[in-house]
Design goal:
Blueprint lengths: L1 E5 L4 H12 L3 E5 L5 H10 L2 E4 L10 H21 L4 E6 L7 H20 L3 E6 L1 E3 L10 H10 L12 E6 H13 L11 E4 H16 L9 H11 L13 E4 L2 E9 L3 E8 L4 E6 L5 E7 L1 E8 L4 E8 L6 E3 L3 E7 L5 E7 L11 E2 L6 E3 L1
Parallel strand pairs: 1-2, 1-3, 3-4, 4-5, 6-7, 15-20
Antiparallel strand pairs: 7-8, 9-10, 10-11, 11-18, 12-17, 12-19, 13-16, 13-18, 14-15, 14-17
Length: 370
């Protein structure tokens, strides 16, 4: 379809334009630099209009009326005159409030409802809360954007009203709802998932991301809000924070490097073994590991503590396989190739020096079973 997007260069507009183009639609963008003639030509061609343009931080109070009311009236009038089509409108939850911004958004809604009544074309009004996500402008688009930007750079954050509750929606959820409305016209309600958090908790959570990353950890992203907020925080990392030096434990046998740790999903590490080297020769009471050889070749051997039968698994870069190392098995991995063997290792809990759960023992090969 030919789809007009007003406010195409804005925070929400950029995401919508990219999503529409990915889905094969032809976008006709309208921005502040679009001339009235170009705007009219685009509106006449439209199959649907995403009316996302608006003013929420004006230099003059009159801009609320000019950017939110007058522009909406122009769009509705031109559509009504030339080409009545459905409209998806980005309004605000503040449309219920009695202040200049809320009044202007409510007036825009009234214009579009009148357009719907006169034209017969559907109008979908989204009363959106504060939005957050990538590509926002710090100190402009949202408090989340500003906090992520400042905290990622180690800057001090000042909270004037820590107990104030924010209602937030993630930009990807908004776009997904827009696309669903586009695909299932007339069969959906214009709603998006929202999250509520105090300013204090919001800042403290983002600050915790800095601490977690410094410890090579990953937040618990089973909470949908934390998952979205952490992704947003990462999108505002400065260049120097995108690379994290790792501590590598190295000796004549090779090296061992911890990649990241999580409190509930374990630890991932990289193990490098020189040719002819065997690593391991121990077992665990409760730890469970998985090995994947991604470069080189070798053999993994396991033996139960109370048995003399050894299980062997030949592994190599030629065929990536995951080998489970259950608790209670003595195990080692031997590099049988001519170059360094690189193994990605996962264990179900981060290493704790006070409780290593690692006991030395030797894997015998007397009755090896491949």
């Amino acid at each position: 379809m030919d789809i007009v997007v007003t406010g195409a260069n804005g925070f929400l507009g950029r995401h919508v334009v990219h999503a529409l183009e990915r889905n094969g639609h032809h976008v006709l963008p309208i921005t502040r630099s679009t001339s009235p003639i170009e705007r009219s030509e685009s509106i006449r061609r439209a199959d649907i209009v995403f009316h996302l343009a608006g003013v929420n931080r004006p230099e003059r109070l009159e801009e609320f009326t000019e950017g939110n009311v007058d522009l909406t009236e122009v769009v509705a009038t031109e559509l009504l005159s030339y080409n009545p089509v459905p409209i998806i409108f980005a309004s605000s939850i503040q449309a219920t409030e009695n202040h200049p911004y809320g009044n202007s958004k409510r007036a825009a809604e009234d214009i579009l409802r009148l357009y719907e009544k006169r034209s017969g074309a559907a109008v979908y009004i989204y009363r959106l809360p504060n939005l957050f996500g990538k590509w926002g402008r710090p100190f402009y688009n949202s408090a989340v954007t500003t906090f992520c930007y400042q905290i990622a750079r180690g800057e001090e954050v000042t909270i004037t009203h820590p107990d104030r509750v924010l209602t937030l929606a993630h930009i990807d959820d908004v776009v997904a709802s827009f696309l669903e409305t586009l695909d299932r016209e007339g069969q959906v309600d214009p709603e998006v998932p929202t999250h509520q958090v105090t300013l204090f908790d919001l800042v403290r959570t983002i600050e915790s991301f800095n601490v977690v990353r410094a410890a090579r950890g990953i937040p618990d992203v089973s909470d949908p809000f934390i998952k979205k907020l952490y992704s947003t925080y990462l999108s505002y990392l400065p260049r120097e924070k995108m690379v994290t030096p790792l501590t590598t434990h190295q000796d004549m046998r090779g090296s061992f490097t911890e990649l990241f740790k999580t409190p509930d999903r374990g630890q991932v590490s990289v193990n490098v073994a020189k040719p002819g080297i065997t690593k391991g020769e121990h077992w665990h009471e409760s730890k469970h590991e998985q090995f994947i050889v991604v470069s080189g070749e070798g053999v993994i051997r396991l033996r139960t503590m109370d048995g003399d039968q050894t299980l062997s698994f030949h592994v190599s870069e030629e065929r990536l396989e995951v080998v489970d190392i259950p608790p209670g098995y003595v195990h080692h991995i031997e590099n049988t190739g001519s170059k360094d063997m690189v193994t990605i290792m996962w264990v179900n809990e981060p290493f704790d020096a006070s409780r290593p759960d690692t006991y030395m023992a030797t894997v015998t090969e007397d009755t090896e079973v491949s």
